[in-house]
């Protein structure tokens, strides 16, 4: 449904054509498009400024029924993200007009300071992601996704970049799968069900799937994970996905926090936005969707996804503050606060990944701390690693995909903060200060000498407001990032 097209605008029958316009430079090569832009700019209300738009119908010279001009603002400010956002807005604009397909004009490579491949990738991503809206629980669906999204390029370009459309479609399909899981209400994704949903998607792509139920977890001594699950009527699951190509280059393990609902446990949360805590499995969703995408793309690495899934609830069986548990890795942990549950399920999963797979690289994704949101806001993830190369690659992938990551420190002396009087470690420090860092340091106690990174996605995993190419709910953050990263490792 996504393709690059070279068409004669004078002859081709088109429902809706979208033309991006810069306010201070003509970014198109094609004479017809350039003269259409001139016509649009004659309308007083349209200058091509950011957020400007205008629709003109049945213009002579072209057969398109409607032409939508979208302002990009100043040429100097133009980057891949503004094109991604423009394409997302283009699709939403066309959907509102009840059209079923769109042709979007791609700016000329020679006139841009951005490589054509980057331009095309960004525009395709924005369009595909903007075409999705989570309305599964609405009886009356107002949003009709477009059937076709085409990009207007010249014949040579269409040939050169033919394969790009399929790769981008696959990665965006993965992002949308993660979004849907994150947005799903917590009563429909309790651990047993979420695990089954991951399993059924993964099996279709021929991934190896193993699921440990509560009995297996007890037998194998996943003490930290079981402690978090203890308060819930829903039993925990550990899902293991393996992508095993014939001649793998490396083994890479991803670990994703899968708390299907985080009430805080006995340290019950007091904030108003408790309903958003259905998103506390966004790391798990991103890891599962990345594995599924890696299989669809036939990537060359051995990739393992380790996904601990629990519900964090208060009850008579719940773990108490003061309890001491033994983790899978052997270390004992005093539970200082039952709301710091993510790090508990992650340490068991990290230890399991390292012990059983000996990966070259292990990366965990988790909606781990409110403190990371305080530090970096709602759109930027915190990236922690002792390995400078790995950290740099994560930051670069973040720039490429606009799933932004900012490197955070792991100061050795802060480790004193997570000491316990009675056990090897306490799951919370006595101070709230530096909460994202102390959480990451807690995880670091379980990775031995494996090259490891932790990405705290508490902010960017969930959108409270609609934006250019993402509706309210799960953002799918992490899937595009990890797919890009896999090409660098
Ligand atoms: N799931 C939360 C973190 C979170 C907060 C994610 C807001 C998304 C939005 C995590 O389990 C948690 O509750 N962390 C506590 C840790 C504290 C008790 C040390 C926090 O951040 O307050
Ligand atoms: Zn919590
Ligand atoms: Zn949590």
How would you describe what is shown here?
This protein is α/β, with parallel strands linked by helices and 489 residues long. The chain has 14 helices and 20 strands. A hairpin with a 5-residue loop joins strand 12 and strand 13 (332-334). It has two domains: 2-153, 3-Layer(aba) Sandwich (Leucine Aminopeptidase, subunit E, domain 1); 172-488, Zn peptidases (Aminopeptidase). 34% of the residues lie in helices and 21% in strands. The chain is elongated and about 80 Å long. Bound molecules: ligand BES and zinc ion (2 copies). The site of one zinc ion (ZN) has 4 residues, from loops.
Topology:
Blueprint: E1 2-5, E2 16-22, H1 31-41, E3 53-57, E4 66-73, H2 80-96, E5 101-105, H3 116-130, E6 148-152, H4 155-160, H5 164-183, H6 191-204, E7 208-212, H7 214-219, H8 223-229, E8 237-243, E9 251-256, E10 258-262, H9 282-296, E11 302-312, E12 324-326, E13 332-334, H10 342-357, E14 361-366, H11 370-376, E15 381-385, H12 388-401, E16 405-408, E17 425-426, H13 435-444, E18 451-456, E19 462-463, E20 473-474, H14 479-486
Parallel strand pairs: 1-6, 2-4, 2-5, 5-6, 9-11, 9-14, 10-11, 13-17, 14-18, 15-16
Antiparallel strand pairs: 3-4, 7-8, 8-11, 12-13, 15-18, 19-20
The chain binds ligand BES and zinc ion (2 copies).
């Amino acid at each position: 449904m996504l393709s690059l097209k070279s068409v004669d605008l004078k002859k081709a029958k088109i429902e809706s054509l979208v033309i991006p316009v810069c306010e201070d430079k003509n970014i198109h090569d094609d004479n017809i498009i350039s003269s259409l832009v001139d016509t649009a700019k004659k309308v007083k209300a349209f200058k091509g400024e950011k957020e400007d738009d205008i629709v003109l119908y049945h213009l002579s010279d072209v057969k398109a029924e409607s032409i939508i001009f979208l302002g990009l603002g100043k040429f100097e400010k133009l980057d891949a993200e503004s094109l991604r956002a423009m394409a997302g807005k283009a699709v939403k604009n066309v959907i509102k007009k009840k059209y079923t397909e769109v042709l979007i004009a791609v700016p000329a490579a020679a006139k841009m300071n951005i490589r054509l491949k980057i331009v095309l990738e960004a525009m395709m991503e924005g369009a595909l992601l903007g075409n999705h809206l989570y309305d599964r629980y609405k009886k009356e669906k107002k949003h009709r996704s477009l059937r076709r999204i085409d990009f207007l390029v010249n014949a040579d370009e269409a040939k050169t970049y033919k394969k790009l459309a399929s790769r981008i479609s696959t990665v965006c399909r993965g992002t949308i799968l993660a979004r849907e899981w994150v947005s799903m209400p917590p009563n429909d994704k309790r651990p047993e069900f979420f695990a089954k949903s991951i399993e059924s998607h993964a099996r279709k792509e021929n991934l190896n799937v193993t699921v440990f139920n509560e009995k297996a977890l007890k037998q194998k001594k996943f003490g930290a994970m079981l402690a978090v699950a203890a308060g819930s009527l829903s039993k925990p699951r550990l899902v293991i996905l393996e992508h095993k190509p014939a001649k793998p280059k490396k083994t890479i393990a991803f670990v994703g926090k899968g708390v299907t609902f985080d009430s805080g446990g006995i340290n019950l949360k007091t904030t108003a936005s408790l309903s958003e805590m259905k998103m506390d499995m966004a790391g798990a969703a991103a890891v599962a969707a990345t594995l599924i995408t890696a299989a669809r793309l036939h990537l060359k690495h051995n990739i393992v996804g380790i996904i601990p899934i629990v519900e964090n609830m208060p009850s008579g069986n719940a773990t108490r503050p003061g309890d001491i548990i033994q983790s899978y890795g052997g270390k004992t942990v005093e539970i200082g606060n039952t709301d710091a549950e993510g790090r508990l399920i992650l340490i068991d999963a990290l230890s399991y990944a390292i012990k059983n797979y000996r990966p070259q690289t292990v990366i965990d994704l988790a909606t781990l701390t409110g403190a990371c949101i305080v530090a970096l806001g709602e759109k930027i993830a915190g990236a922690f690693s002792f390995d400078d190369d790995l950290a740099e690659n994560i930051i670069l992938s973040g720039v490429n995909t606009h799933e932004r990551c900012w490197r955070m420190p792991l100061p050795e002396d802060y480790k004193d903060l997570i000491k316990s009087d009675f056990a090897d470690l306490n799951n919370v420090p006595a101070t709230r200060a530096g909460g994202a860092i102390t959480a990451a340091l807690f995880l670091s106690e379980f990775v031995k000498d494996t090259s490891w990174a932790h990405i705290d996605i508490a902010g960017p995993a969930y959108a409270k407001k609609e934006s250019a190419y993402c509706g309210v709910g799960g953002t799918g953050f992490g899937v595009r990032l990890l797919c890009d990263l896999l090409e660098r490792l």
